[in-house]
Amino acid sequence: xxxxxxxxxxxxxxxxxxxxxxxxxxxxxxxxxxxxxxxxxxxxxxxxxxxxxxxxxxxxxxxxxxxxxxxxxxxxxxxxxxxxxxxxxxxxxxxxxxxxxxxxxxxxxxxxxxxxxxxxxxxxxxxxxxxxxx
Amino acid sequence: xxxxxxxxxxxxxxxxxxxxxxxxxxxxxxxxxxxxxxxxxxxxxxxxxxxxxxxxxxxxxxxxxxxxxxxxxxxxxxxxxxxxxxxxxxxxxxxxxxxxxxxxxxxxxxxxxxxxxxxxxxxxxxxxxxxxxx
Lengths: 134, 134
What we know:
The structure is a homodimer. Chain A is α+β, with helices and mostly antiparallel strands. Chain A is 22% helix and 39% strand. Chain A has helices at 15-25, 64-72, 86-95; strands at 4-11, 29-36, 41-48, 51-58, 75-82, 106-107, 113-117, 127-131. In chain A, strand 2 (29-36) and strand 3 (41-48) form a beta hairpin. Chain A is globular and about 45 Å long.
């Protein structure tokens, strides 16, 4: 049901410093930059083959990423799996008894449809399902 | 220089419970299981397209993953990028001034050559380079 690792989400407190690392030192191409209102973040996607590193700087302390940073500091925030049918994937997770954060998909970066599973159901790994925009 | 996200490494304290989650509930195929002596872990690779989730249960408390679990509990441990030439990738990281854990590659799972960058150089994201066995 999952086609690939879509991205790894990384919480950062300084997007420009993180870009300097990933783009200029590690040599990943900057592909997209967007303020994602639904999640209260400014995000940059860096290209790694067909997948991405997603850098996330909160636009508000009260966002999920803002609270994560306050609690944990910068670091890996979530992993996202790409699916062609997020409704089916979410239904499968629900049927398997997994606790969900999002009962139905929300709008994520680049018009994708996304939903998060609850980390208490996934070994403390915040897990996102992503259906890209068509 | 990076061809894809090779895997996301997840620290677990119960490999069988984690397998039940990823294989039986999320529907990922179990592809490989190996005790990796160099790293003091029993590891399982689950298939996600051309990438993997790598579940890691320490075989000793004194391993890096054992210490991670004691400090942080279960969760995302590292992200690994695949490269066709780890010597070149490691040289590029060194030339960019990034602090390395491994000055030269070690032998990882399935005979791969792997090297870790220091998380202090990568925004607290433990970052692995992987050249698969040929």
